[in-house]
């Protein structure tokens, strides 16, 4: 059973920064590919960023240059540093994990709300 626990969401103003964290077990952290997704009201869940065990990263175009995904190996935690936030970044942010042998993310956290006011 893969457990993912997000934290760090909140209400900020446009232009501010926020850092999300996703804590998991060492086994999951060392084996799985980790990612962040988000879902805005009335919209489908969308990909934000992903990071492999080797710390290779991929970002959605909408966040490239503003968001950074990273691994904290000492804490078995995946971080999402979000800078220059925009109102359109408002969403519930979900941490996800994928076994490298599978093609889809099928392990999800409960989500954390990020609200950016204009």
Could you outline the blueprint of secondary structure elements for this entry?
Blueprint: E1 5-7, E2 10-13, E3 18-23, H1 26-31, E4 33-39, E5 46-51, E6 57-59, E7 67-72, E8 77-82, E9 91-98, E10 107-108, E11 112-117
Parallel strand pairs: 2-11
Antiparallel strand pairs: 1-3, 3-8, 4-5, 4-9, 5-6, 7-8, 9-10, 9-11
What structural keywords apply?
118 residues, mainly beta, seven-stranded mixed beta sheet, four-stranded antiparallel beta sheet, 1 helix, 11 strands, 5% helix
Structural class assignment: mainly beta
Principal-axis shape equals globular
Q: How many helical elements?
A: 1
* Biggest sheet details: 7 strands, mixed
Q: Estimate what percentage of residues fall within beta strands.
A: over 45%
Helicity, as a percent range: under 10%
Average pLDDT, to the nearest integer?
Answer: 96
User: Which stretches are poorly predicted, pLDDT < 50 over at least 5 residues?
Assistant: none
Give me the Rg, rounded.
13 Å
Instruction: Give the strand tally.
Output: 11
Question: How far apart lie the N and C ends?
Answer: 40 Å
Order of helices and strands: EEEHEEEEEEEE
What does this structure look like?
By secondary structure, the protein is mostly beta strands. The longest helix is centred in the first third of the chain and has 6 residues.
What's the gist of this structure?
By secondary structure, this protein is mainly β. It has 1 helix and 11 strands.
């Amino acid at each position: 059973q893969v457990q993912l626990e997000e934290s760090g969401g909140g209400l900020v103003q446009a232009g501010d920064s926020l850092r999300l964290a996703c804590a998991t077990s060492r086994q999951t952290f060392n084996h799985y590919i980790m990612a962040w997704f988000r879902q805005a009201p009335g919209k489908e869940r969308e990909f934000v960023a992903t990071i492999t065990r080797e710390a290779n990263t991929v970002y959605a175009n909408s966040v490239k240059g503003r968001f950074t995904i990273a691994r904290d190996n000492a804490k078995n935690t995946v971080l999402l540093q979000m800078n220059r936030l925009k109102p359109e970044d408002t969403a519930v942010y979900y941490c996800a994990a994928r076994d490298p042998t599978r093609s889809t993310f099928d392990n999800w956290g409960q989500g954390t709300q990020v609200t950016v006011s204009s």
